[in-house]
């Protein structure tokens, strides 16, 4: 896939880079990205999301853990784009850590979660990112994420050796 000319990605290009599928694919479009630096993507939150049936029927709220997951998927996209590779079925991106996660406002049906992720550093196979999710310009959540990319055969080995 040639992703170097166009700095946006549609859902088909995203699915070529992420193994996630419905209902766990939480990135709808990449608006812009710059290798080794940052990415901006969106998740259109709709009333049809399966999790709203139970979280909460009287006041639908997107679970915080899924908002973090959406940021992590955005970060994974940035990593693959930065490396200039398309992962194969043996590539998995794992969380190594989540620091300073803060939830500032609820996200619900009709909201568009805009996700801005920047690379803070890459060291010994660990990627660290600053991630912020906003709705209508207001911060909904922010966190520092750490991830690593592993092959499925290496999945049980420690992230840092």
UniProtKB/TrEMBL annotation:
Signal peptide per UniProt: none
Gene Ontology MF terms: (3R)-hydroxyacyl-[acyl-carrier-protein] dehydratase activity
Catalytic activity: a (3R)-hydroxyacyl-[ACP] = a (2E)-enoyl-[ACP] + H2O
SUPFAM superfamilies in the record: Thioesterase/thiol ester dehydrase-isomerase
Taxonomy, superkingdom: Bacteria
Pfam families recorded: FabA
Active site residues per record: 55
Main location: cytoplasm
Localization in the cell: Cytoplasm
Alphabetical keyword list: Cytoplasm, Lipid A biosynthesis, Lipid biosynthesis, Lipid metabolism, Lyase
Class of the enzyme per the UniProt entry, highest EC level: lyase
One GO biological process term: fatty acid biosynthetic process
EC number: 4.2.1.59
One GO CC term, this protein: cytoplasm
PANTHER family: 3-HYDROXYACYL-[ACYL-CARRIER-PROTEIN] DEHYDRATASE (PTHR30272)
Primary role: Involved in unsaturated fatty acids biosynthesis. Catalyzes the dehydration of short chain beta-hydroxyacyl-ACPs and long chain saturated and unsaturated beta-hydroxyacyl-ACPs.
Family classification: Belongs to the thioester dehydratase family. FabZ subfamily.
Designated name of the protein: 3-hydroxyacyl-[acyl-carrier-protein] dehydratase FabZ
Source species taxonomy: Bacteria, Pseudomonadati, Pseudomonadota, Betaproteobacteria, Burkholderiales
Gene name tied to this protein: fabZ
